[in-house]
Amino acid sequence: MHTQPLHTRLAPRALALATATLLTACGAMKPASSPMYSQDSLPDTIKVPAGHKVAMETVGVGEITYECRDKANMPGQTEWVFVGPKAVLNDRSGKQVGTYYGPPATWESNDGSKLTATQLAVAPSGAGNLPYQLVKANPAMGSGAMVGVTYIQRVALKGGVAPATACTTANKGAREIVKYQADYIFWKAA
Questions:
Q1: Global confidence as pTM
Q2: Residue 85 class from Cβ within 10 Å (0-12 exposed, 13-18 middle, 19+ buried)?
Q3: Which are the contacts of 178, defined by CB distance < 8 A and separation ≥ 6?
């Protein structure tokens, strides 16, 4: 009786096992599809109209400066007035891709392209947070990532509202800096 050597009998099994392992590994290597940004949970007033697609998602991390000033047309009364933002814009992996500053509110890409915008709408986003915002982009300056941007949404807000400290005639002219974070979603025509 002639028997096959052990390595010859196990070779087909080993090949099948190796193939199955390789196929499983390849299946696991599929690029993780990042979930598409959805406006579904946002108030209608700040939704970008149909015919546009997300071009870039950023997380703005920074601060907003407020100044204690006289209320307009109300002598003797004071209030905290928004002076301007200063933030770093990071992509979803945390890498800086630009900055946001003002006045006027300006979004600038690391490639040098930048734009300003006109506010179209705001909506409440929760106590202690800046409101949601939709702005219509003005034509970009320079060439790069900001060229062709049509709208910018400010969503996923944390902080940024006027200081809780008193603003009185005694501290008129005082400035306070408040930390905030917000996602800025850039849209282009589809």
A1: 0.79
A2: buried
A3: 63, 64, 65, 66, 159, 160, 161, 162, 163
